[in-house]
Amino acid sequence: MKNDGLIAVPTTEIVSDLRKIDDRLTELYKRVAGAAADLTAPIVRALLLNLIVYARSAEEAEEAAVNISEISGTHPCRAIIVDVTPIQQPSAGQSSEAGIITTVCGITSRGDRTLCGEIITLRLTPRADQVIGSVTPLLIGDVPVVLWVPGDIPQADPDFEVLFLMADHVLLDSRRFADLPAGLNLIPRFCPHEGAECTSADLSWASIQTWRELIAQHFDPLSMRHYLAKLQRVDVTFTDSRDAQSRPEAWVPSAPLFLACWFMLCTGLQPREVERSDRGQFIIHAEQEGRPVEIRLSPTGKELPKGRIGAFVVRGGDPSDTATFIVKSVSMTEIVVTEECPGVCLPPQVLDVVPESDAVLAARALDADRRDVVYEDVLKMAVQVLKRIRS
Amino acid sequence: MVVEDSQFTNLDNPPNPLRRGLPREKAIMPCVFVIFGGTGDLAHRKLLPALYHLYRGGLLPRKFAILSYASGDLTDDQYRESIQESIRNFAPSMSAEGSKWESFAQLLHHCRRTSDVAESMQRLKKRLTEIDSSVGAEGNYLFYLAVPPSAFALTAKGIKDVGLAQDPEGRAWRRLVIEKPFGTDLQSARRLNQELQSIFREDQIYRIDHYLGKETVQNMLVFRFANEVVEPLLNSTYVDHIQITVAESIGIEQRGKFYDVTGALRDIVQNHLLQVTSLVCMEPPPSLDPEAVRDEKTKLLRSIRPIRPEDVNYTTVRGQYSAGVFLGEHVKGYREEDDVKPDSDTETYVALKLNIDNRRWHGVPIYLRTGKRLAKRVSEVAIRLRNVPQMLFDDTQAAEIQPNVISLQIQPDEGISVRFQAKLPGLTLDIRPVKMDFKYGAAFAPSAPEAYERLLLDAMLGDTSLYARDDFVEAAWELVDPIIERWRLTQMPANSYLPGSWGPKEADEMMARDGRKWRRL
C-alpha cells in the first residue's frame, strides 16, 4: 500500500439523531473543503465500498478508526463501526449520542487529489433489530459491503449474523483468535463453498505474503528447483506468544502455522504426526514421497511483536549436494535473504519491507477480494495439523 | 493478477510450485538485462529509471544484473554515477541515494563498444558470461536495443555472431526488444522482420509500443469485455461513429531530424492509433492468451478497408503548424524548428477516416486524428452512439437531445465518461446532456505505473500481450503505405494551422462532408 504523502484532515462531530447523518456529513465535507482550501489537490468524496467493523469493545472501535484513517488514501470508503459495547446512560444534562461521524482524507500518491472517505461510529445496544435498522439505511448502494471482524469470530451472536448477511466480503484475523483451533474451524463458514457469493480474507494469511514471495524467489532459478523435491528439514521460528492460560495447541500462532502448511502443500509434504514440546516447539513429522521430513515451528525471543515470524529455513538436496535457503526477519522493516549452496549463491541481501500494520494488511486483503483457493487448502491443512498434536 | 493454475505452467518449466497464488508480476526468472545504447537518452531517461522503480518495488529477481553496451569509455562506477545523475534529473520522485540506490547500483555494469564491432561483441559476450556466473542468471538474457532503427538488424546479427541469440542447451531464454519505428514502409518493415527472424524466433522478438503500456489502453479490454453494459452496444446498430484522438500541445522539440523524414502518419497513426483502433474494434478473443489477443487485433486491422487512391484526398487531411502564440508564448512554426528543412512539407497533423469491412462495424466510420501543437495534450477514444428515435419529444425538445457518447480518456486524466440526457429540474420538459465521469485518479489512489515499467516487466516475464507482432506491423503498413504514396503522387499539401488550435480547417471540412463534427476536447 502506498501511503506516501497522505495528509489527514480529520473532522469529527457527534450526532444525536441517526436520521440526520447524511445531512451532517454534507456539512462536515463543506468544512473539510474549507479547511483544505489551501491544498492544491481538489477534494473528492470517493466512497468505493462500505466497510463495517464489528467492535465488541471501545478499544476495538478506536483501533478500527485509526486503521481506517490510515487506509483512507488508498481505499476511501464509508466505514461504519458498529460498537456494541454496553452503553452507559447519559447523565442529566448530557446530550445523548447516537453516533460519531468523521471524515478522513488523504492526498493521493500522485498529489493531484484529496480523497475523502468517512467513518460513522454507531454505539448500539446489542439487539439485532437495532443493528439491522441502523446499519442498513446507512450503507451506500451499489458498492460492496465488507465486514471486518477484528477478533474472535462471534458465535450465536444475532447482531453479527445480520451484519454477516449484508456482507459481500469478510475480513478476519486469525492472529487474534483466543482459541486458534476453534477459530480456524469456524473460518470455512466464511470461505465460499461452491456457488456462494461471499468471500473472506484473513489478515494473518495476508501477513505472510511477503514471506511466501521471498521463499518462492529462492526457487525461481531452475538450478535450485530440484532441492524442493528432496527436502530434508524446514525450520520456522516465531516470537513466543504463550501465556500461562494458553491451551497447548494455541501456542503456535496462525501466521507461522500457515507458512509451514503452505510450504508443505506446495512441496507435496504430507503431515503424519505433530509433536509438541514443553518449550513450545512443534515438530510436524511429514513425508515427501516416502521420505521423512521434519518441519519445526519454534518460539524464540520477544524482539518482534508476538506471533510474528522470525525466520524460515529450508534445507534440501542429497547428502553430497545440500543447500540451505534462509529468509530471516531482522527488524520490523528489514528481512535478510540468503542461501548456502554448492552453485551460485549470492551474498545475503537485506530487503526493506513495509511494516505490516493491521491497516496495511487490511488494504492488501481488500484488494484481494476474491476467492483464494490456496488459502482454503492451507487452512484445511492447518486444521489437520492442529488435530494431530500429541503431547 | 496472480498466478493461476492455468497460467502457472507458462512461466517456466518445470514450474516453481511455490509461486501458485502469488502475484505474477514478481515471478521473473533470473536474468541479465543487456542495453545496447546504454549511455543514450532512452536508457537514461526511461529505461534505467523504470528498472530502478521496479527494483524499489521488489519486482526484479534477486539474481539479476544490467549490462550497458555503448561507445562511452566508462568504468562500472562511472556508469553508475551517470545513471544516478539521470535518476536525480529525470525521476526526482525516487531517491537515488542511500542503501537502496547503492544495492541497485551494484547491478549496473558497462561494456565499451569500440569501432571494432566484432571484437567489442566478443568482449560483451565475455563480460556477460562473467556477470551471469556471478549472479546466477542461468543464461537468461534480454537484449534491449536502445539504438537507432537503422542499427537493429546489424546489432541482432552481432548478437547472433557471438552465439548469444539462442541458448546452446535450449534451457535459457533469450529475448530481443526493439522500439518503434519498425520500418518506414511496408517493404522496409518486411525486410526488418525477415532479418530479425533469421536470427530470433518471432516469439523472442518484443516490439515495444509504449502506448500499449498505458493503463487506460490496457483497461480497454476490461472495459469492453468485463462489462455487459458496454460490449453489446459496440456495433453498427448502436454506434454512429468513433473518433480517436492523440493530441499533443508540444511541438517536435529536439526530434527535427527524425520527424522531418517521418511525419505524423508514420510516427503516430501507423502504430499507436492503429493499435488503439484494433483494441476498441476487435472481436472478443477466445482467451487473454497473448497470441489470442494479437490474433484478433491483426484480424481487425486486416478488416479495415484500404483507402482507394482516388479517395485519399477526401478521407485524409494533412496539416503543419505555423508560428503563433500558444498560451501567451510565441512559438516557432514547424519549418523554423531545428533540423527541419525550411521548405519542409512534412505533416505534423493527420486526420483520416477509416471503414471496417466486417459485420460488426459495417457503415461505422472511424475517424483518427493526431497532431503536434494542438490546443491540449489529450488522447481519447470517443464512441458516439446513434441518435434516439425522436417520436416522444416535440421538435424543440428533440433538437436539445445530443447523442450519447462513451469516451475513454487515455491521457492526461485517465478515465471513462458517458454523456447522456437528463431532464432539467422544473415544470417544463427541458432536456440537457450530462456527463457521468469515472476518473482513475479519484477512484484508485495509487498511481498507475509508468508505461515502460509495465512493458519491461512483461518482457522479462515473457508476456507478449502488449507487444506488436510482425503481422500486425505489416498490416498497419499495408494500410498506411498507399496513403503516403498518394500524397506523394498528388503532392497533397500539408495545410497550415495555428498553434493552440485543433488543426487545419480542412479536417473540420472532412467531417462536415459526412455531417459530423470533431469533438471539442
Strand content of chain A is: 25-35%
Order of helices and strands of chain A: EHEEHEEEHEHEHEHHHEHEEEEEEEHHE
Largest interface (CB < 8 Å):
A-B, 46 and 35 residues
Shape designation of chain B: globular
Query: What level of helicity do the residues of chain A show?
Result: 25-40%
Number of helices of chain A: 11
Q: Tell me, rounded to a whole number, the average pLDDT of chain B.
A: 90
Main sheet: strands, sense, barrel of chain B? 9 strands, mixed
Number of beta-strand segments of chain A: 18
Largest sheet: number of strands, sense, barrel closure of chain A: 9 strands, mixed
Strand arrangement within the widest β-sheet of chain B reads: 16-15-14-13-7-12-11-8-18
Helix content of chain B: 25-40%
The CA-CA distance between the termini of chain B, in Å, is 34 Å
Assembly classification: heterodimer
User: How many β-strands of chain B, per DSSP?
Assistant: 18
Poorly predicted regions of chain B: 1-11
Question: If you had to describe this structure to a student in words, what would you say it looks like?
Answer:
The complex is a heterodimer of chains A (391) and B (521). Chain A has eleven helices and 18 strands. Chain A is α/β, with parallel strands linked by helices and 391 residues long. In chain A, strand 7 (145-148), helix 4 (158-166) and strand 8 (169-172) form a beta-alpha-beta unit. Chain A is globular and about 75 Å long. In chain B, 37% of the residues lie in helices and 20% in strands. In chain B, the strands form three sheets. In chain B, strands 16-15-14-13-7-12-11-8-18 form a nine-stranded mixed beta sheet, with helices on both faces. Chain B has a seven-stranded mixed beta sheet with strand order 3-2-1-4-5-6-17, sandwiched between helices. Chain B has a two-stranded antiparallel sheet with strand order 9-10. In chain B, helix 2 (41-56) crosses helix 3, helix 2 (41-56) crosses helix 15 and helix 10 (263-281) packs across helix 11. Chain B starts with a helix and ends in an 8-residue tail after the last helix. At the A-B interface, helix 7, helix 8, helix 9, strand 17 and helix 11 of A face helix 4, helix 5 and helix 14 of B.
